[in-house]
Design brief:
With 473 residues, this protein is mainly α. 72% of the residues lie in helices and 0% in strands.
Length: 473
């Protein structure tokens, strides 16, 4: 103990802040580029499906993403930062030379920024989390060899990383498929889907709001003292907020939606079949490119297999007015997904910069301070700049190029991915929101109409996931 204390004191005395000021400045610049790369790549995951379904324009998606990424980072994104900053590298190896740890953080920022910007230019959605893990391993092995890494933590994160290639998309896809099947059974396949959709809307809003509030209040922001709220208190608050949202939808939103759609139906000219080659905005919500002849006598008597009964009819033409009911809640779930991304991934991006600032201020490598709020906000600002300048590239890949998406499927895709990402963030796991959302898009697309999945794009995305760790490292 005395030797460690003596070594630490000597290192502090020998630490010249002026000699490493350049590393701090370069690190700040590279952190901005890393945030810009994340904004142009990862944030598109949250709002790409809303743009692809036509519910949001690109500009509106940018505005909402900027707001909710910030809220997620500030209110929830604390635990994952400490995982990436202190959990992977054995900082005790650098107690006698904190300058080397500073150089390592600069290397992490440079490697991750270069890979993310390259992937964004190539329109490939990749994981910032895995990029950071790979870069952290790379610098530590170069400077300290195999002794510079907390291998038990790396085994855990490495296992989580490999598992997340499979578990993240599988779990997120499963949740999204379950949600889509609920929507399908409760609304879409009914004889009167529009009326069923109106009745179900308050329930959907209750679940979305309650879960989101629970994730904010349960072991929440230390800045806002949410971490002092007991579990039962967080549950009560979330249920109360969900109930208020459901009542708002029931008595205010539903009548407005009903009147608006009825007015649109009255103003439209009556036709005998589905509108074809129309310029109306709502035509994009009609699922299916061909309308096949159907019997007009209601349910058929043909015996089908259980799987055929369980899965939606791939040739079904869904009621456009019913699909439009999910437009508003899809916007909310997009915000929810952006919040989840801010909670999980923004904290990862600023972890190296946090370490840099801590070393410069404290003159040691112990990493004992909490994450400063101004660093979180700086990271969010960089992400927003990248989103507004580069985000349209990956938005096209996720939102339009990989599968056909409408507001109903977009709602289930985004909510399932956000649930998976937020729960993982609460557990302190550096899971990838990219994997979650891509898994949900593919899973729902396969269940709904497997012909709509562009498997070549999905294959390229998976390859980019696999090479992220070694390339960033």
């Amino acid at each position: 103990m005395e030797n460690v204390l003596t070594t630490t004191i000597e290192a502090v005395v020998a630490f010249d802040q002026h000699s490493v000021l350049w590393a701090l400045i370069v690190g700040i610049i590279l952190a901005f580029l890393l945030g810009a790369g994340m904004g142009g790549n990862d944030v598109a995951n949250a709002f790409g499906t809303s743009v692809g379904s036509g519910v949001l324009t690109v500009i509106k998606a940018y505005i909402l993403a900027s707001i909710f990424e910030t809220l997620g980072a500030v209110l929830v994104g604390w635990s994952v930062t400490d995982t990436m900053r202190k959990g992977v590298v054995d900082t005790d190896q650098y107690l006698n030379n904190p300058k080397e740890l500073m150089l390592g953080q600069v290397a992490i920022l440079g490697g991750c920024a270069a890979w993310l910007l390259m992937a964004t230019v190539l329109k490939m959605p990749v994981s910032t989390t895995h990029s950071l893990v790979g870069a952290t391993l790379g610098f530590s092995i170069v400077l300290r060899g195999l002794n510079g890494i907390r291998w038990m933590k790396i085994v855990n994160i490495g296992t989580d990383t490999v598992i997340s290639w499979f578990l993240s998309p599988a779990l997120s896809g499963t949740i999204s498929v379950i949600l889509y099947m609920i929507v399908d059974f409760a609304v879409l396949r009914r004889d009167n889907p529009f009326e069923c959709g109106l009745r179900a809307l308050p329930v959907f809003y209750f679940v979305c709001i309650a879960f989101n509030v629970l994730m904010v209040t349960w072991d929440g922001s230390k800045l806002l003292h949410f971490d002092k709220i007991p579990v039962w208190g967080a549950v009560i608050i979330s249920i109360g907020c969900g109930f208020i949202a459901a009542m708002f939808v029931q008595f205010f939103l539903k009548p407005r939606i009903n009147r608006k759609i009825q007015d649109e139906m009255v103003s439209k000219p009556k036709v005998q079949s589905v509108i074809v080659n129309s310029d109306l905005e709502t035509d994009r919500y009609i699922v299916g490119k061909e309308v096949k002849d159907v019997e007009s006598g209601g349910c058929t008597t043909k015996v089908r297999s259980f799987l055929g009964w369980l899965l939606p009819d791939k040739d079904r033409v869904e009621d456009e007015q019913t699909i439009k009911l999910f437009s508003t809640i899809q916007v909310f779930t997009a915000c929810f997904a952006g919040f989840a991304h801010g909670a999980n991934d923004v904290s990862n991006a600023i972890a190296p910069l946090t370490a840099l600032v801590a070393i410069y201020k404290d003159k040691n490598a112990r990493q004992e301070e909490e994450v400063p709020i101004y660093i979180l906000l700086y990271g969010v600002f960089a992400i927003c700049v990248g989103l507004w300048t580069l985000g349209h590239r990956v938005i096209r890949t996720v939102g339009t190029n990989m599968s056909e998406i409408n507001p109903a499927t977009g709602f289930t895709i985004e909510f399932g991915a956000a649930m998976t990402a937020l729960i993982s963030s609460k557990l302190g796991l550096p899971i990838s929101t990219t994997h979650c959302l891509v898994g949900s898009v593919v899973a729902v697309g396969v269940v709904k109409s497997r012909e709509s999945i562009k498997w070549s794009i999905f294959r390229n995305i998976v390859i980019s996931w696999v090479v992220t760790l070694p390339v960033a490292g």
